[in-house]
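Protein: DUF4169 family protein
Species: Mesorhizobium vachelliae
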Amino acid sequence: MGEVVNLRQARKQKARTEKERQASENRALHGRSKLERERDRLTSQKAEKFVAGHRREKPDDPGKR
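Structure follows.
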């Protein structure tokens, strides 16, 4: 016969494990230095500017509507 498992304790342990996993992800995502955040912001701005500069239609072109 199998081992007896207390379902309440198993459910709580699963919730604790999930919370720890989420906390670990948040630490990796938000636990960065100011320089790292600034670098990522500038990189995303540069990419957006590059894409916007290569669009065929400009968003502020009044003659296209």
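Remarks: The chain has two helices and no strands.
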